[in-house]
C-alpha cells in the first residue's frame, strides 16, 4: 500500500495500442511514479505479456489493472481491481470479482491487490458503455459515492474517471475535500502540463493515458508539471 500512496503521476498504457521501444523507454525513464497497464477492450494475455516484458527492462513500478481474467499473469508489482460504483450492473461491482476469486483465490497474494472504486463520468467512454455506468450524476451523487467508498467499503482508492475527456476541476476539489483516508486518482483528457498541474492540486494521483498515443511530447511534460504542483501544495 505504501508504494501506491506515494504515486503522484502515473502513465496508463493500453495493451490494445502500440508504442515503439524508443517512446516506451522515454516514458519509463520520465520520472513518472508508475506505469499502469490496462484498458477496456482488446486486452489479451499476449499483449499484456508483451508490454510487461518491455516495461520490465526499466526500474519503474508496474501495475496491472485487471479488466479481464483471461489476461491475468504473475510478474506485476501490484494488481489494481476496478469496482465501478456507478455501474447499473452488479457484474461490474461484484460479479466478475466473485468469479475471479473463485478461480484464483488459492493463489492470490492480497498484499499486492488493491481495489479501485471507480466513478465514471464520461458517458461516451468505452468503460461507461461496457459497465452501463450512470454517468449523469450531480455533485451530491458523486460525493455520496466518495463517502461510501471511504467510510463504508473502506476502499484504498477512489478513481474519478473521465476517460477521453477533461473533467471538472471544481468537482475534483469537492471530492478531495470529502476524502481523508482513501487515495484520489484522477484520470481523463489530460493533454497538457497545465491540465495535469490543475488536477494535481486536488488529486493525489494524476493518470495520463491517451495523450501517450496522441501527443507524446506533451504527455511527457505532465510528469514535471505534476511534480511542481505537488511541491506547491
Ligand atoms: C494469476 C494471478 C497472477 C493472479 C493474481 C491475483 C489477482 C490479481 C486476481 C484478480 C482478482 C479480481 C478480483 C479480479 C477482478 C476481475 C474483473 C474482470 C473485474 C472487473 C473489472 C471492471 C469493472 C472492468 C470494467 C472496465 C473498466 C473499469 C476499465 C478501466 C480501465 C479504463 C477506463 C481504461 C481506459 O482505457 P480504454 O477504456 O481502453 O480507453 P480507449 O477508448 O482509449 O481504448
Ligand atoms: O486516456 P485518458 O483520457 O488520459 O484517461 C486516463 C485514464 O483515466 C483512463 O483510464
Ligand atoms: Mg483501450
Return the CATH architecture: Alpha-Beta Barrel
The SS-based structural class is alpha/beta
Overall residue-averaged pLDDT value? 98
Largest sheet: 8 strands, parallel, barrel
Report the end-to-end length measured between terminal Cα atoms. Answer: 22 Å
CATH superfamily: FMN-linked oxidoreductases
Low-confidence stretches: none
Radius of gyration: 16 Å
What is the fold-level CATH name, i.e. the topology?
TIM Barrel
CATH class annotation = Alpha Beta
Number of helices: 10
Instruction: Classify the beta-strand content into a percent band.
Output: 15-25%
Query: Helical amount among residues, as a percent range?
Result: 25-40%
Shape: globular
Please provide the ordered H/E string of secondary-structure elements: HEHEHEEHEHHEHEHEHH
Spatial ordering of strands, largest sheet: 1-2-3-4-5-6-7-8
The bound ligands are:
the ligand CC(C)=CCC/C(C)=C/CC/C(C)=C/CC/C(C)=C/CC/C(C)=C/CC/C(C)=C/CC/C(C)=C/COP(=O)(O)OP(=O)(O)O, SN-glycerol-1-phosphate, magnesium ion
Task: Please tell me the total number of domains.
Answer: 1
Task: Tell me the total number of β-strands.
Answer: 8
Amino acid at each position: 500500500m505504501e508504494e501506491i500512496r506515494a504515486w503522484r503521476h502515473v502513465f496508463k498504457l493500453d495493451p490494445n495500442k502500440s508504442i515503439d521501444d524508443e517512446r516506451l523507454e522515454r516514458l519509463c525513464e520520465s520520472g513518472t511514479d508508475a506505469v499502469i497497464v490496462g484498458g477496456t477492450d482488446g486486452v489479451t494475455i499476449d499483449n499484456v505479456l508483451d508490454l510487461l516484458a518491455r516495461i520490465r527492462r526499466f526500474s519503474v513500478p508496474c501495475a496491472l489493472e485487471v479488466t479481464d481474467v483471461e489476461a491475468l499473469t504473475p510478474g506485476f508489482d501490484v494488481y489494481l481491481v476496478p469496482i465501478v460504483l456507478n455501474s447499473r450492473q452488479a457484474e461490474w461491482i461484484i460479479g466478475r470479482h466473485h468469479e475471479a476469486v473463485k478461480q484464483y483465490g488459492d493463489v492470490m497474494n492480497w498484499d499486492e491487490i488493491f481495489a479501485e472504486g471507480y466513478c465514471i463520468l464520461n458517458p461516451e467512454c468505452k468503460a461507461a458503455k461496457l459497465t452501463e455506468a450512470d454517468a449523469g450524476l450531480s455533485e451530491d451523487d458523486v460525493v455520496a459515492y466518495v463517502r461510501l467508498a471511504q467510510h463504508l467499503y473502506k476502499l484504498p482508492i477512489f478513481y474519478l474517471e473521465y476517460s477521453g475527456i477533461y473533467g471538472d476541476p471544481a468537482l475534483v476539489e469537492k471530492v478531495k475535500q470529502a476524502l481523508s483516508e482513501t487515495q484520489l486518482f484522477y484520470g481523463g483528457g489530460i493533454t497538457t502540463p497545465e491540465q495535469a498541474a490543475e488536477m494535481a492540486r486536488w488529486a493525489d494521483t494524476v493518470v495520463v493515458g491517451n495523450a501517450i498515443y496522441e501527443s507524446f511530447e506533451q504527455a511527457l511534460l505532465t510528469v514535471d508539471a505534476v511534480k511542481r504542483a505537488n511541491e506547491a501544495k
